[in-house]
Amino acid sequence: MRPVRWHGAWGGRDPLSDMSAVVAPQSGPWVILTRATLRLGCVKAFLDAVPAVAARLRSQPTLLNSVGVG
After folding, report:
1. How far apart, in Å, do the first and last CA atoms of the chain sit?
2. Which of 13, 34, 56, 67 is 20–30 Å from 49 (CA)?
3. Handedness of CA 54, 57, 63, 67 (dihedral sign)
4. Residue pLDDT, tens place only, 17-61
């Protein structure tokens, strides 16, 4: 796997800073990794949004797998 695009920092550090982005290929498979830090006051809104987002993700015909970790 090679990164195509990223932004932000994890724990104040860019974990991909030593890598160079590649031009996005037109075909997959693709891996999308998302990491977030939630403020305590936002946790309920985040969790309330999960079912709709997960349902939309599962409806994608080319989805191979989805794993949520929290």
Report:
1. 23
2. 13
3. negative
4. 888 888 876 677 888 888 888 899 999 999 999 999 999 999 999
Token readout for 44 is 């309920």
- What is the C-alpha to C-alpha distance for residues 59 and 16, in angstroms, rounded to an integer? 31
pLDDT at 13 over 80: yes
User: What backbone torsions phi and psi does residue 13 show, to the nearest 5 degrees?
Assistant: -130, 140
* Residue 6 CB neighbour total at 10 angstroms: 13
Angle made by CA atoms 50, 37, 28, in degrees to the nearest 5: 60
CA distance 16 to 18: 5
